Amino acid sequence: MGSSFVQVAAFTDRSLAGNPAAVCVLPAPADADWMQSVARQMEAPETAFLVRRPDGAFDLRWFTSVGESDLCGHATLASAHVLWQDRHVPMGETGRFHTRSGLLTAVRAGDWIELDFPVTPVTPLEEVAGLARALGVRPLAVSLSHPAHGDQYHFLVELESEQAIRGLAPDMGAISALPAIAVTVTSHATTPGYDFVSRFFAPRGGIDEDAVTGSAHCVLGPYWQTRLGKDSFVAYQASARGGVVRVRVAGERVILGGQAVTERRGELA
């Protein structure tokens, strides 16, 4: 199956920052093996595949280099950006996506895009064997996320400071051996303009460190809501590329705001 693709930098307003995602708008549903092969070829952490439904909504699936994802924020943001930019959806219309995690929507808010995602609840844990050694620091608190769909559980780890987050150099082999697919680390921010910072490690999912992880903020928003006593935040993911996420907790939903920039286009033979 031939198709074009667009690579987009998500959660940033400039190229070579944020999190890259490849977006393929397909004329018809594709075989999962073909989509997985395409995702392996792409130089992006996630590749999004979209097929229009008769009602104007889209079926949306996300693939890393090693498998299909249950939920992906930055590739959904990138998909909405492409649908409006390339006139698949009128500029003022809501983007609607049927996914493994239910119906997700996207709307424009000036230069920003706002995604409506489900809250991911967490359960506090007393201790996780090997976690402190894998991170190289002792956590202040550890929780386990419980996604509403799928079984891709993550550890959420609070550290003592933004400096500790930025200076972290985890052992990826030890991270891979933990009984969860990924680890999010976070702390209260000391950089002016931000409420909290984070980083995200998922070597078992084919991504040692993700640049900006929208889905992780479905956990981080409610987590910091209980600690900071407010519902809206500006968050920074302190990877090498870095990116900004606006987060608003609204009951059982989290509104994630970000910007996006097209970086390149291509054709798949």
Overview of this protein structure:
With 269 residues, this protein is an alpha+beta fold. It has helices at residues 32-41, 73-85, 131-135, 162-167, 172-176, 217-228; strands at 3-10, 19-26, 46-52, 58-63, 68-69, 95-99, 102-109, 112-118, 122-125, 141-145, 154-158, 182-188, 196-202, 207-210, 232-237, 243-250, 253-258, 260-268. The chain has two domains: 3-118 and 256-268, Roll (Diaminopimelate Epimerase, Chain A, domain 1), CATH 3.10.310; 122-248, Diaminopimelate Epimerase, Chain A, domain 1 (Roll). It contains six helices and 18 strands. The protein has an 18-stranded mixed beta sheet that branches. A hairpin with a 2-residue loop joins β16 (243-250) and β17. The mean pLDDT is 95.
Describe, in short, the structure shown:
With 269 residues, the chain is of the alpha+beta class.
What is the element layout, followed by pairings?
Blueprint: E1 3-10, E2 19-26, H1 32-41, E3 46-52, E4 58-63, E5 68-69, H2 73-85, E6 95-99, E7 102-109, E8 112-118, E9 122-125, H3 131-135, E10 141-145, E11 154-158, H4 162-167, H5 172-176, E12 182-188, E13 196-202, E14 207-210, H6 217-228, E15 232-237, E16 243-250, E17 253-258, E18 260-268
